[in-house]
Automatic annotation (TrEMBL), chains A, B:
Belongs to the ATP-dependent AMP-binding enzyme family. Pfam families: AMP-binding, AMP-binding_C. Coiled coil: none annotated. This is Fatty-acyl-CoA synthase. Keywords: Ligase. SUPFAM superfamilies: Acetyl-CoA synthetase-like. Residues 14-386 form the AMP-dependent synthetase/ligase domain. PROSITE patterns: AMP_BINDING (PS00455). The keyword Ligase applies.
Length: 523, 523
């Protein structure tokens, strides 16, 4: 068998040779601004890679992007690995000092950024004054290079890059709610296999028939792996531009007859509301994949029944490239069963392994009832952080996910909590995630977070922070809705009503901020 | 990322942990004789692997199977690699001397065989008197070991085997129509990636929902890769036993609600006839995958319209593990277009690369018209034969398939001939495959082969060897049907009517025998 390494640049060759006429479509503010083909993409990527090498980028160097979802970012996804370097997608929602931290930690050789993000990058540039900076759009300022010049002027590189399959192709930093960001390095082989897994009929099933919309930020965990998968299968890719409004997203789906969309539940709620209000027809979608947090049953029902679009849940984390599990309900399941299956995190993708362990590291049975911390391992699961930081996140080569989960005997995962979000009350554990799921079904509740507050007698007690729906909310009714659904002693001591939940830079509820507020009596 | 090797034994772990209750079902002569689960399968495989090691099998040793399609053979598929050895599936249709040749060439350490195949194995055993022999069923004779004892008595091996991903996991010999059989060694990594590819939505799309029937012989090119794919996704596997009649196959599909069946066109013709006669309902099949030779349009139409079963074509060869391309028609294609697409060999599976070259090795354009020899390369394509034999079959690491093909600009392959089946007439080439395809559509033609016969003036001329349908055939009508479909000078000089076409041990038309017969005037 040919012993060539598994390199992500194979997917560039694949798109050029097997789908030269398929499309990359750019939108800005709901207007289509560009249509191009994989043939053009390939030519631009190769010239860009040549230009990066001419700029001094060497094999193994990290090259940073600070950019939204547009064709230039998609070009960099392949051009940087083709140049033999490591694509470092910087989270543009980080504070400028945090951006300086990750760019410094990665020792990025070059930074390529959207003009609008110059302020965010200022401290990083100040700290690395010798780092070449390329502006992706608009006119260069203060010694910057113009991206357009690189693409026009580069000498095309013919692949493959001088890399082995175990060398890094990409790097993302996780935005933990505690401690400094940690880098997750992705090898070529990891991303290659992750891309194959994205095409599995039992998984995301991304196929040549698809027209995918990239709503997930491209700095976020390889955009869930969808760009590489689309290249591999020859699917069209639609880029909605910077911060699209939900009306733009709906219009793009309708106009482009998009078939695959991944998004966080919060945005999906907005999309459902929008479609209900306007009658937008989203039925070209064959899959709306929810990820990032657990969707409510009602959201799943609304997507499937009101929009007429099949819903799925994909679960994973930056440390798992990120696809780890996928919930695909049994084909003959009744609607209720179906929605329940989609709300769970689903089955482990082939190629990965899992374990459930208690706090002493002993195995927990997969009986659907017992809870344990989920450990993961496999070709696209991190077994260390970049530069070896935080080794306690790994156990004998297994990733400690920090998630508390149950696995049923049929191999379905249900994440029930973060280890650090468990509430210790009177020597027992209360699951804040289970409480949140139950509260989401209460009347008048649009969004909710449950946090632990210190308690003299019980050590900790739960408090529910609730965002009311348009029609308002009644705290007593909210607590009443929990009856029979959770143990009586789980009932929150208080319901706090807020206008909106604070969120981290990647859109997760910022429980640290909530706890601080609650602790200080600011609610 | 975890740097563990990609080993096929991962699929055994996967089946045990993620589909312990899914089934392996054995039939004999149309009667179900055994049902077991992957949990039981895993336990048996581990004990069997332990017993093989106890028998003296060492890492890298070849271990031969000479067996039909049953659960024991399926156990050996995993137990031999788990023991660190190489699964050598011997073609049971070879002549006894040929079996002795391949067993000797592979230097098999152990032979495991069905009792009924003892005569076929006699010369191989005589030539290797020290080789332990295990009989899979029935009572051991003359120093043979009993398979049942190995499975019962073995000390379970816990994986993974002490192998790297580039070490061999399996070995098949090709049955070329010229020269001695050549061995194709499959590395663990090759079969791992091939298995992933079998699950792709754009390919065979084998999924957890499937109940596959193994009609393809398990000695033949890894049974098209379906057993490993079924283990990976947790699909049920149904083994129809030795030489099932077509009525048995239909009954098994109906009783078991099978969803996936791969078979050669000749048998599919029989299946269609049987279903038409008996009204057998085969609509549980979501895919009937044709492979081994090009199906007729009429067969494809009959499968889709008369049986109500989606037809596909998978194409490949022993040297490609064997899946290389898959024809999946566009979803909105009209029936005619759809059938034409299925008749072509389809798109290259992700992970592989191809080239089309002329007789000087220069590239031939992918314009849908130009013909060239197809070269293949990739993680599951052979780049050499076992022990380095016949190096001229490879070109700079590329496999020379010996197939003449066209590739259209959209990346669809159409195999038009074997290099050695082209007919050289007056300095031009005539495609025997294209002629055969056209002749198959002529009235009264059930089967056909076109061969070259020497000609004084034109060098070679085509002769059609025709098997008539029940109602008989008229040679003039057969030739008349070619009008307008092929160039006039392609018309065969003669139509020879025979009762049946001679076939090789794997069911391909034996053109060498036909040419010899025609040459000797025996027709």
């Amino acid at each position: 068998m040919s012993g060539e390494p598994l390199l992500v640049t194979a997917f560039l060759d694949r798109a050029r040779e097997h789908a030269p006429e398929r499309e990359i479509v750019d939108y800005v503010d709901g207007t289509c601004v560009r249509r191009s083909t994989y043939r053009e993409y390939d030519a631009r990527v190769r010239r860009l890679a040549g230009a990066l090498v001419a700029l001094g980028v060497r094999p193994g160097d990290r090259v940073a992007t600070l950019a939204g979802n547009h064709h230039r970012h998609l070009e960099l996804y392949l051009a940087i690995p083709l140049a033999g370097a490591v694509l470092h997608t910087v989270n543009l929602r980080l504070a400028p000092d945090e951006i300086a931290y990750v760019v410094g930690h990665a020792e990025d050789a070059v930074l390529l950024l959207d003009a609008a993000l110059r302020p965010a990058a200022a401290p990083a540039r100040a700290a690395r004054p010798d780092m070449p900076v390329v502006v992706l759009d608009g006119e260069p300022e203060d010694g910057e290079l113009a991206y357009a010049d690189l693409v026009t002027g580069g000498t095309p590189l013919d692949g493959p890059p001088p890399r082995g399959e175990d060398d890094l192709a990409a790097l993302c930093y996780t935005t933990g709610t505690t401690g400094a960001p940690k880098g997750v390095g992705y090898s070529h082989k990891a991303l290659y296999l992750h891309t194959m897994a994205a095409g599995l009929a039992d998984g995301h099933a991304i196929s040549r028939r698809d027209r995918v919309v990239h709503l997930v930020a491209m700095f976020h965990a390889n955009a869930w792996g969808v760009p590489l998968a689309a290249l591999m299968v020859g699917a069209d890719q639609i880029l909605p531009g910077p911060s699209p409004r939900i009306a733009d997203v709906a219009a793009i789906i309708e106009r482009e007859r998009a078939t695959y969309l991944g998004m966080v539940p919060t945005l999906a709620v907005d999309l459902v509301d929008h479609a209900r209000r306007t009658g937008a027809d989203l039925r070209s979608l064959r899959a709306l994949v929810l990820g990032g947090s657990t969707p409510s049953r009602e959201l799943i029902r609304a997507i499937e029944e009101d929009l007429g679009v099949p819903a799925f849940q994909g679960w994973g984390m930056t440390e798992t490239s990120p696809m780890a599990t996928f919930s695909r309900p049994e084909p003959d399941a009744a609607p209720d069963e179906r929605h329940a299956e989609i709300q769970a995190q689903g089955r482990l993708l082939p190629g990965l392994r899992w374990r459930l362990v208690d706090s002493e590291g002993a195995p927990v049975p997969h009986d659907g009832v017992s809870r344990g911390e989920l450990l993961l391992r496999g070709p696209w699961v991190a077994s260390e952080y970049f530069r070896g930081e935080r080794p306690e996140a790994f156990l004998d080569g297994w990733l400690r996910t920090g998630d508390v989960a149950r696995i049923d005997p049929d191999g379905r995962l249900r994440v029930v909590d973060r280890v650090k979000d468990l509430i210790k009350s009177g020597g027992e554990w209360i699951s804040s995630l289970a409480l949140e799921a139950a509260l989401l079904d209460a009347p008048g509740v649009a969004d909710v977070a449950v946090i632990a507050v210190p308690h003299e007698r019980w050590q900790e007690r739960p408090v529910a922070v609730v965002v009311p729906a348009a029609e308002g909310v009644d705290a007593a009714a909210v607590l009443g809705a929990l009856e029979g659904r959770v143990p009586r002693w789980w009932c929150p001591d208080r319901v706090v009503v807020v206008d909106a939940l604070p969120r981290t830079s990647v859109g997760k509820v910022d429980k640290r901020a909530l706890r601080a507020r609650e602790h200080n009596g600011v609610s």
